[in-house]
Amino acid sequence: MMEHIPILILVTPLLSALLISMISLISKTVRIQKIITFISLSLPFVYLFFLFEELSKGIIEYNIGGWIKPYGITLVVDELSFTLLLITSIVTFLSFIYSTKCMEEKNGKFYFFYLIMVVGLFGIFLSGDIFNIYVFFELTVISSYILITYGDKKVSLKASIKYLIIGSIASFFFLFAIGLVYIKTGLLNIDFLSKNIHLIDSQTQIIIFTLFLGAIGIKAAIIPFHTWLVDAHSTAPSPISAILSGITVKTGVYIFIRVFALGFTLQNINELIMIFGAITALGGVIGALVEWDIKRLLAYHTISQIGFIIVGIGTFSCIGVAGGIYHIVNHAIFKGLLFLCAGSIIFRTGSKDIREHGIGKTMPVTLVCYIIGALAISGITPFNGSVSKSMIEISVYNYPIIWIILIFASIGTVAHFSKILYYSFIKTPKNKFQPNLKEVPYPMQISMIFLAFFCIFLGVFPNLFMDNFIFPATTSIVSDVNNISIGIIKPLYILKEWIIVIFGLLLLKIIIIRSKEIDILREFISKFKLNITIFLMIVSLIIFTLILNAYN
Amino acid sequence: MTSRIVKIVSRELTPFIFLFGIYIIIYGHLSPGGGFQGGVVLAMGAILVMVIYGGEKMQKYVPHLAFIEILGVFLFVLFGLLSISYGKQFYSNLGTIWILNIIIGLKVFVGLVILYLLFIRWEISK
Amino acid sequence: MINGINIGIILFLVGLYGIVTNKNLIKIVMSISVMGNGIVLFFISLGYIKGNLAPIINSGVEHIVDPVPHALMLTMIVINLCITALALIIIVWLHKEYGTIDLGEMK
Questions:
Q1: Do residues A437 and A363 make contact, with C-beta atoms less than 8 angstroms apart?
Q2: CB contact burial A107-120 (16+ within 10 A = b; e otherwise)
């Protein structure tokens, strides 16, 4: 039975989803569905515990149907997959506990789509075959199109159809790249492809890499391709936003790591990837300048942090890649925490605009969890964001321009999160008076407290996680790994962080004073329609192809 | 959609469409076809009748059809687990791929019919 | 000159052009469908080897075209069907909410 665990991880949520769907045809209450979902989302932890023991002996491979490797579909678990499976289980489980009180449900169909999304997410991280990644990705993305429409109807339907159109373009680019890879090498298995892809001639490698970058850029929201993310993540209901921002965007980065590690032999790819990442990191923060809606602010910061991760991975050095992967883990946890806090505020006050909140002392648990999340994303020392952000910033010391852009992005992050803290929690609004604000119900508090605990735990003991998971994961990409132990007290880095905080608070002061110019900027940005954004995507891809052609 | 010629021709044509669909499903492992393709042809036969004669009478069967569809997927996944219980890997070849084709064909047929019925539900209720 | 690969690429580009320039949502969904079919044609003609027969096991057939793209495309056609069906459902819902299916008038 131990050897069948990779397939049991996929089958358990699927069977529970079908059971829920059958029961929801006949029952009137939602209670049984919630119990079944609870059981099926806590079983992966058991499976992962057994997998961890087997993983120490080597990479686990499971051939479906008994067909051996180049002829059949394989499921592969190595340390990178294991890390992402672990955070997927944690975030989806805690989001589910949050959603039992937050979503009013008559039917239980919501949990059906939730479990199908979990099946899709597990499948992406488990598959060892490049076409299988496409299939599971479509499963995830189709269920997320449906889950987004559970928000308030008018805006979420529009966001969902926009996401659908842009996501379909991404899938087709991905398929086109798979087709080109197949015609040139005849293989679809990632393990075999990584040994053979340098046999393709340089011109075709450029086209393949550009198409992959287009597909991955749309899924992971790199800057010319990011336009679907803000609407989709902000109009979805809060637990779904936490999963979308935490995990689904990261599947794009995971596919990027797998494709990047395939060994394309093109010159200067590192610098181009880092430029994309740096522009993304800065663009997310600039886009958030004009927003007063709390969820849209968090969605813009997702774009910015993905920029950090792409820069980290693009350096192709041990510290950079390890920092990037660790930032994936950290970002899932603290962005999930922040979205759940935002959801709690919206649940109690009913409005998304941060100038109308002003809750402060009436919701202490939410306040503390939000402060922990904000400090983590800004990179202050005892929390987990600081470890990964410092690692990424160390790895770009050789490229001073990119380092400066990342510092500016960090300053902007601090400014925006202090803005949310000031307006939502401290400042009481002028014309709205909220008489009866209590704390949110207990299940929602439990999810937030657990995620905050993980934030602190991963920040204070980073070596525990890194030596077991992250550094073995980087060996699949980089050849020279020296185990660096990260301590938490390093005075130079603490000084850098506090300088960033001071500048961030200055920027916040400027934003508060000059809000009129910011409103004019907002009018300008919101005029972009769907057609123009897709056209910009294609133009930027063509420019990327031409630049690569010039270098090779 | 209610002229007499159309009604008579569709009534005579539908059994052949069903027969062809079942042929595609059952011979799926030897000739082109299989579960999904045969299911779509079967659904086209049923939807032809519903387009011409109106879909009001079938609306009350939607939960029953949904139950059959979910049962189909359930059996499909359990079939994979069956091959684990025989000691081999998931979905090994036990010589019974034709059962999988039939399950998929039934599921796709029912699924597309439900899709059509739900699409015209709003139109009927207007 | 006119083989499956070129026509597949042309269909893909026509579909992409259709998504970029259309404002009516149903036309955009049709363009997505055209794009998908272009990819199907492209993939299937990748495996074509000149003079070989269809990939069906009969007695005495030795040279067949590559059957792997056929299997991949079956999966892809199903997924495209799901995306088209879902897009149409969301469009019907949008029409109920807004009264129009034109992207320009919905802002």
A1: yes
A2: ebbbbbbbbbbbbb
What one-letter code names the amino acid at A497?
Answer: E
A14 and chain B in contact, CB less than 8 A: yes
Interval C28-46: pLDDT, tens: 999 999 999 999 999 988 8
Which residues does chain A have within 8 Å of residue B67's beta carbon, measured at their own beta carbons? 22, 25
What is the band of A461 on the pLDDT scale with cuts at 50, 70, 90? confident
Q: Which residues in A lie closer than 8 A to residue C40 (C-beta atoms)?
A: none
The Cα of B107 is separated from the nearest Cα of chain A by a number of Å equal to 13
Q: What is the pLDDT of residues A100-139, one digit of tens each?
A: 888 877 777 889 999 999 999 999 998 888 889 999 999 9
SS (H, E, C) C89-104: HHHHHHHHHHCCCEHH
Half-sphere exposure of A330 (CA within 13 A, CB side): 40
Partner C, chain B 10-49, Cβ-Cβ below 8 Å: 30-32, 34, 36
Three-state secondary structure call for residue B25? helix
When CB atoms are compared, the residue of A11, A64, A65 closest to B81 is A11
Could you give the ipTM of this predicted complex?
Answer: 0.94
Q: How far apart are the first and last CA of chain B?
A: 19
Nearest CA in chain B to C79: B36
Q: Which residue of chain C has the CA closest to B112?
A: C85
Q: Please give the residue of chain B at the shortest CA–CA distance from A64.
A: B90
C9-39 as b/e, with b when 16 or more CB fall inside 10 Å?
eebbeebbebbbebeebeebbbbbbbbbbbb
